[in-house]
Amino acid sequence: MTYCVGLRLDRGIVFASDTRTNAGFDNIATFRKMHVWERDGDRVLVLLSAGNLAVTQAVISNLNEQIDAHRDDGEPSLLNVETMFRAARLVGEAIREVKKVDGPELEVFAASFILGGQIHGEPPRLFQIYAEGNFIEATKDTPFFQIGEHKYGKPILDRVARPEMGMGDAAKLVLLSFDSTLRSNLSVGMPIDMTIYERDSMKLGAQRRIESDDPYFRKLSRSWSEGLRDTFGRIESFEMSEDATAPLPFGKAKA
Amino acid sequence: MTYCVGLRLDRGIVFASDTRTNAGFDNIATFRKMHVWERDGDRVLVLLSAGNLAVTQAVISNLNEQIDAHRDDGEPSLLNVETMFRAARLVGEAIREVKKVDGPELEVFAASFILGGQIHGEPPRLFQIYAEGNFIEATKDTPFFQIGEHKYGKPILDRVARPEMGMGDAAKLVLLSFDSTLRSNLSVGMPIDMTIYERDSMKLGAQRRIESDDPYFRKLSRSWSEGLRDTFGRIESFEMSEDATAPLPFGKAKA
Hints:
Two copies of one chain form a homodimer. By secondary structure, chain A is an alpha+beta fold. Chain A has a single domain (3-219), classed as Aminohydrolase, N-terminal nucleophile (Ntn) domain (Glutamine Phosphoribosylpyrophosphate, subunit 1, domain 1, 4-Layer Sandwich), CATH 3.60.20. Chain A has helices at 53-69, 84-102, 154-160, 167-184, 215-234, and strands spanning 3-9, 12-17, 20-22, 28-30, 34-39, 43-51, 111-119, 125-129, 135-137, 144-148, 192-198, 207-210, 253-254. In chain A, the strands form three sheets. In chain A, strands 10-1-2-11-12 form a five-stranded antiparallel β-sheet, covered by helices on one side. In chain A, strands 5-6-7-8-9 form a five-stranded antiparallel β-sheet. In chain A, strands 3-4 form a two-stranded antiparallel ribbon. In chain A, strand 3 (20-22) and strand 4 (28-30) form a beta hairpin. Chain A starts with a strand and ends with a strand. Residues 243-247 and 249-255 of chain A have low confidence and may be disordered. At the A-B interface, strand 5, helix 3, helix 4, strand 11 and strand 12 of A face strand 5, helix 3, helix 4, strand 11 and strand 12 of B.
């Protein structure tokens, strides 16, 4: 299983992905799911992938071959398109290409991507690209995308994510979302790859592979658990005394 | 969509279910998903249902017809079996019966149940019953079951649920789990039906239908959001300064 998050802020974008892939619970391996293309001063593109590893690797390979093939001939590739929208379309086309080749042999064609970054002349943009090759873009209302095992980590993002957050707070939030996911689904696994893109920097920002013994992550996880339990303890209990409540409108079968 | 929780404590069991059913987003209705059988001083059984409404209603009807048919002839029904295990088996058999009749016409046969309660001579027990008719029982290690849209509400249960909790705290916890689910999935809907069974009482305890304007639920939801944000704010940010971090082991494609 996979869990990846992209969070677009006013100040930039935070990307994170887990690194576990499995083909059954007895065959687990670590693969990176974060892919970067960069041209200093001109563009930074980060692509997070979820789904069948053979499919997602084929998509990445197609995109890289396209870059090599079209370095000089003017045909589009991730390193020369002029907008993030065009870049997202290239990823979608690469997915459709792989689907054409491998899809008929596959029972399930599973692949989804988060593409974010900035190309000179545009603000930073963030897209989610589906297995069908079409895509949606993040907005102020919903500034994040998740792919893979997304449900456990969504409540905290729903409550806290705001475009005006600082990058450090956003990184903390994304790691908390991972913490919830890791606790509830064992097949999403550490380490976590995290990278930051700061708006208008036109180069990749700080990157980090966060291992399971990372002191910050361990402290974050512990502080969050303690804080949740404290908050829980401070809220008054729900006492349903028999006489204080209206009975439910259901008939009881009585002997 | 549906969300139901059963939480077995040392002191009894808390049951809760939402009440929304839908056949597409433009056809939403309220149905109760909590069903009770009771014989004062002898047994209390509570059944929560998720899945195709036609299937789950047929299962309940079969169980009720069985009670009427076997009131005097000694054949087993929910009101005369001697253990909760036997009761769970009856529910499983009812599911298989419905599957035999309606299953072949259905593209997906979706049904799952939580059965809990107490029969004289046994401690309270809690089961999750699958569409296949087989079932598992809650233990001290995992004292709760969820059916339906279970992922959003699982992290808080994982962190806080303990068999030794008081009933009021457990009811609060279950409502928090609903709050997270309701925020993230619009097709799980208020009101929430909640009922409490207190160990060895041999009668159904307090029951409540919690509407969306319920003052306790609104306050709980608000206090929890504020508490989470406070806790979030108190944890230090994750600052990834470029020089303090080891770069990720990925090659960047550079032009």
